[in-house]
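I am still learning, so can you show me any protein sequence you like together with the matching structure tokens, please?
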Amino acid sequence: MAITADRKEHPISMRLPEADIAMIDRAAGLRGRSRTEFVRDAAVRAAEDVVMESRLIRMSADGFAAFMAVLAAPATAVPEMVELAKRPAPWEPGYVAKG
């Protein structure tokens, strides 16, 4: 009697234009990943985004009122963010690298 193991991996096959494969290979190489790893990671990340976007968030009326109150409240300045926003960007004159 043959014993069959449950498959943990399932193949996916795609037909893509050569230009798409070249772009994927270039990006995968820049990340130090194989084509399979790169495509798998990108596909899973995109799938997670879609699932999270369509997820229904439920809360009580009191919870929703508290949530809306926080959104409607005046913003509070975060000193570190204010300082960061005042710094010149790396491509602007006057930029000095900190470190």
Observations:
- The chain has a mean pLDDT of 91.
- DSSP finds four helices and no strands in the chain.
